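Help! Submission page says 'invalid entity' but I think these are all valid:
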Amino acid sequence: MLSNASKYAIRAVLFLAENSSYHKKYGSKQIAEELEIPLSFIAKLLQQLAKAGVISSTKGPKGGFFMTPQNMQNNINSILKEIENENIFEGCFLGLPRCSDENPCPVHHIVAPFKDALWNKFQNQTILDFAREIKQNGSFLSLKGVEIKRKDLL
Amino acid sequence: MLSNASKYAIRAVLFLAENSSYHKKYGSKQIAEELEIPLSFIAKLLQQLAKAGVISSTKGPKGGFFMTPQNMQNNINSILKEIENENIFEGCFLGLPRCSDENPCPVHHIVAPFKDALWNKFQNQTILDFAREIKQNGSFLSLKGVEIKRKDLL
DNA sequence: ACAATAAAAGACCAATTGATATTTTATAGT
DNA sequence: ACTATAAAATATCAATTGGTCTTTTATTGT
């Protein structure tokens, strides 16, 4: 559903939301390493996002990417708008024409509420909210340096 | 989420389920025209599906693609297994590693039940069930020859 | 036997997405 | 001013997906 590019972008933004500030910037190289994403690829994505104002950046020594408190007030949809080149919420899941609440395809009643819930979350929760949630849930943006316990692999 | 190929394949199979029989076969050309899908593309997909036993076919004059009652007992997942080259139900929606019920990403609780419901429907309902549902709902597999009323376009 | 029909097979081409490498520009520190 | 650093810009390349075309094989009807 989401392209690799979008997933990478989201992870990178959430990483910055959690770790960066005006006084603590991250270069593409660090981010690529930390999240185990191909360097040149994430560099390009970060540039796009910076240009669009989703994140911030400064050139030169001590420069890098970071997020301001304002940046963190953006939502996930603002990331997708930049990276994804079509609206993932549009179109019938099965590709039927004129699929709608009135003319539902066989999975319409499963897909429509899902899209709705997802869109709402991507629209109404800020990036800051997401970052906090991840921290609270004990989720990982990367497995870099995470010790995997034997029992977890079974 | 689904590739074009899968969507085309599903529509074509449902069309055959609704219209074909051993005594009423359809050539790729008719199907392509009826569903407004590129001929060569759908031809290839139909061949794959026939090879896999999802649909039936015979060569030569009076030949074509069709579905037997047994074919119609297959489910949608059997189509996806042939056409889609990766399991669409696997992997974290946001691309986070080790996302699970215990380590949920911020949209896990939205995505997991959706995937579940979808998988169940694709697994437990037959193609015949789907075809019937579409007929009953008044949905369209194609807009070929469907008159669109003015009010519908507003 | 042979002509016509239609699927099967496979080679091929185009567009999109994923990924890389190179050059240019801005800035900080000396 | 000069050097080092790091983003910005851009050109390029590879892989996947989407789509087309040509040849071969099977079958039917005469």
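Support: the input was valid. A stray whitespace character was the problem, and the output above is from the cleaned input. The radius of gyration of chain B is 18 Å.
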